[in-house]
Amino acid sequence: MTVAKTTNGGTSWSRYHLTTTSGFCYALAVDPTTSSIVYAGGQGGLYKTTSGGSSWSKITGSISGTVYDIAIDPGNHDLVYVAAGGGVYKSTDGGSSWNNLGLSSATAVVIDPNDPEVIYAGTSSGVYKSTSGGGNWVQMNEGLTEKDVTALDIDPGDYLFCGTDGASMFRWSLSGPEVSSRGSSWVTFRWVTPVRDRVEVTYQLKRAGWVELLLYDVSGRRLVRLDSGYRGPGLYRVNYPGRLAPGVYFLRFNHPLGSRIGKLVVMR
């Protein structure tokens, strides 16, 4: 595995052989505050230099699989994330040690510079978001027709961009509607808010039982029963049969084990 460096705009290059065996280098990340610190990852693992490439140390540690992407926190250069075959990994000490944050077959990782606790990861099964520095993940595949992600990048505050294998590029607005969710040990249900027209609710039922999904206006008046009946474990999708006037509404999901309530905003 080899990397190359130029100091004259590409007129000439210096090559650094990081491994004695062949293998592709898929990822490079330069420390945004100290340019002499560089991370390189690929089929040969993960390497780091603190001397601008003069010498390299292997810091793969507990990282499993090929390294496909590296992200360094712009405000804390000791905080590093890696996307690899074995999942997403995090280091808080500049690569001396690594923690596996879960997921699998990770190919891309991005830190939101406006909030370093917000992390996006691309995998062979789609895109995931964490708002706790990788402590937990929520899948965000709405509109993603091809889930084999190859690249992610971010325009802070505006868009998240996603490249995939076989279906071109996608983007999500970071300033538009959010996917809200309410969950428990027996159900997780999600909806987009605010919306302008179509209202769609999905729920992942973990325990079988008689369910009921109700929609209320802001005064507490029940408008419609969106779904009801005995349901086994699985994923269900429910749409409101019509258009709602702009305003604030509430969703209530009932199950023998309890109820969950969520707020829905409809805009003009």
Structure in words:
The structure is a single chain. This protein is mainly β. The chain has 2 domains: 2-173, YVTN repeat-like/Quinoprotein amine dehydrogenase (Methylamine Dehydrogenase, Chain H, 7 Propeller), CATH 2.130.10.10; 178-266, Macroglobulin (MG2) domain (Immunoglobulin-like), CATH 2.60.40. It contains no helices and 25 strands. It has strands spanning 2-5, 14-17, 25-30, 38-42, 45-49, 57-58, 67-72, 80-84, 87-91, 99-100, 106-111, 119-123, 126-130, 138-139, 149-155, 159-164, 169-173, 178-183, 187-193, 200-205, 209-217, 222-231, 234-239, 247-255, 258-266. The strands form 7 sheets. A 4-stranded antiparallel beta sheet has the order 3-4-5-6, with no helix packed on it. A 4-stranded antiparallel beta sheet has the order 7-8-9-10, with no helix packed on it. A hairpin with a 7-residue loop joins strand 5 and strand 6. It is elongated and about 70 Å long.
